[in-house]
Amino acid sequence: MALRAGLIGFGLAGRYFHAPLIEAAGFELSAVVTSRAKDVRDNHPRAAVVDSADTLIASDDIDVVVIASPNQFHFPQARDAILAGKHVIVDKPLSITSSEAESLAELARGHNVKLAAFQNRRWDSDFLTIQSLLARQQLGEVVFYRARWDRFRPTVADRWRERPEPGGGILYDLGSHLIDQALCLFGKPDWLTADVFMQRKGAAVDDGFEILMGKGALRISLGVSSLAADGDWRYCLHGTSGSFFKRGLDPQEEQLRAGTPPAAASFGVEPENRWGTLTRDAGARTIESARGTWVRFYERMRSAIENNDPEPVTASEAALILRVIEAAQRSSSEGRRVDL
């Protein structure tokens, strides 16, 4: 019998990311909490539409609660789901503070349920390519890593991420991904300095940031601009044996929003014009991007529940992301370097 998933939220993340991946990984999408009942019925006719998160969490017909609500609701909804004996998946960030994330981790252990943060960008095409290059020592010892997520959105949108609410702003939104990827590659840094800022007219929360982190000789630069009509390199790595440069975004988000099913042969495959370049002593060559596999998150979560394997992204890992976010906020507000 398939694990029965209940989804809280049917906005961008719930509708286009979680719902199709839930089904592609062999879960049953049993119920959805949303005001968009027609959208659910049109796209997932077998899923029930329920009136509240409390109702879904209390249901005996749900094994796994997937939380894709605004960030400020992640902690209380995850806590209530764990207390109800459900396995839990929370869209990033797991919570707003690291202490909340740590308390959820302890609570999940105490109730013998699985808890994971949906850090899907670990399974991006470009990031998987970089992981492969580093695993094969193609760059030697990496001394500089830069990852950016620049875009051109000059108008402030009327949506919760851009309102002055707990967990709003670009540092929580895109910063969660950039920080997580850096931590996956290099582990916890020794220190960081950060500038978290607002640049657009009418902005009420941060819409850009620059973070510099250090770990021994390695320097890690992470940044986002909302006013970049012509974006910079997505990734830039320098090492003792070579360099790697990459432009363009992983295609999975645009494919899911266009309705491409995760099982399609083209899903997660980057076009050649987005492939990166590896430069070594012998010269430069194009590196074909690995196939992006967001569905792996849900496949690994299913295995964690059924076989007691580790979660694809643990709550402890999510708590470290939040500690870095908190350090960046502190560095920016106090104008100083913060040790980690």
From TrEMBL:
Keywords: Oxidoreductase
Domain of life assignment: Bacteria
Pfam family, one: GFO_IDH_MocA_C
Record-linked Gene3D superfamilies: Dihydrodipicolinate Reductase, domain 2, NAD(P)-binding Rossmann-like Domain
Single GO molecular function: scyllo-inositol dehydrogenase (NADP+) activity
Gfo/Idh/MocA-like oxidoreductase C-terminal domain ranges (all copies): 132-340
First-level EC class: oxidoreductase
EC nos: 1.1.1.371
Gfo/Idh/MocA-like oxidoreductase N-terminal domain ranges (all copies): 4-116
Cleavable signal peptide: none
InterPro entries: Gfo/Idh/MocA-like_OxRdtase_C, Gfo/Idh/MocA-like_OxRdtase_N, Gfo/Idh/MocA_oxidoreduct, NAD(P)-bd_dom_sf
Family assignment from sequence similarity: Belongs to the Gfo/Idh/MocA family.
Name of the protein: Scyllo-inositol 2-dehydrogenase (NADP+)
Organism: Povalibacter uvarum
